[in-house]
Amino acid sequence: MVRKTKEEAQETRNLILDTAEAVFSEKGVSRTTLNDIAKAADLTRGAIYWHFKNKADLFDAMLQRVILPMDEFIATPDLHPEQQPLAYLRTRSMHVVRTLAEDPRTQRVFDIVMHKAEMVDDMLPIRDRHLEAIQGCIQTIETDFQAAIDKGELPANTNARQAAIGLHALIDGLFANFVLSPNLFNLMEQAEFTIDNYLNGLANRK
């Protein structure tokens, strides 16, 4: 009986999160109330508060269900000494692109974060974690670029930090536009074209 109660509680929690994701996507986070989510899920407001302290807590739990692209980039294994840095960086980048391209939930959550959430007030801690993930991603890319410079794959005068910020901006921009309008372009094809041209451009700089 206890197990059934726990299972039912988990089912209710998942229902709330699924519903919040849908309502946030439709109305935006700031315009969505817990009453809106409760009504859409056919639950009471009390049921929402049983699982979540407030809207920010619910939003954070929704984020925890997916691995956003920048977190995915950091989570990929580090470069091994015998690997070619630029080739590995390309593989790493395309892996992150594929993760977003093939997962509708990650697309929806990324769209909410990028286009439908105001990171103010109770959402500031979430904003801070998002910024930390961006900084961690850029640092990871910078390390790979520096390895490419050290191995002679990039000109010695290449600024690894600037190159990393540029690649991050390209990928992040593709993601932001893709989730805004998925029919605008094929994400995998466009990412491959963009990343290859960026890396080749850096390698051929004088």
- Would you tell me the structural class of the helices and strands? mainly alpha
List the domain count as a whole number. Answer: 2
Rg, Å, rounded: 20 Å
Overall pLDDT level: 89
The number of E-state strands comes to 0
CATH class term of the largest domain: Mainly Alpha
Write out the CATH superfamily name of the largest domain: Tetracycline Repressor, domain 2
* CATH fold type of the largest domain: Tetracycline Repressor, domain 2
- Ends distance: 71 Å
Largest sheet: none
Q: How do the SSEs run, as a string of H and E?
A: HHHHHHHHHH
Question: Based on the structure given, which CATH architecture of the largest domain is correct?
Answer: Orthogonal Bundle
Low-confidence stretches: none
Helix percentage range: over 70%
Total helical segments: 10
So what's the overall shape?
Answer: elongated
Beta-strand content estimate: under 5%
Pfam family, one: TetR_C_2
InterPro entries: DNA-bd_HTH_TetR-type_CS, Homeodomain-like_sf, HTH-type_TetR-like_transc_reg, HTH_TetR, Tet_transcr_reg_TetR-rel_C_sf, Tscrpt_reg_MAATS_C
Keywords: DNA-binding, Repressor, Transcription, Transcription regulation
Protein name: TetR family transcriptional regulator
Tell me what you see in this structure.
The chain is an all-alpha fold and 206 residues long. It folds into two domains: 4-51, Homeodomain-like (Arc Repressor Mutant, subunit A); 58-202, Tetracycline Repressor, domain 2 (Orthogonal Bundle). It has ten helices and no strands. It has helices at 2-27, 34-41, 45-51, 55-64, 69-75, 85-101, 104-115, 124-150, 160-180, 187-203. Helix 1 (2-27) crosses helix 2 (34-41), helix 1 (2-27) crosses helix 7 and helix 5 (69-75) crosses helix 8 (124-150). The longest helix has 27 residues, at 124-150. It starts with a helix and ends with a helix.
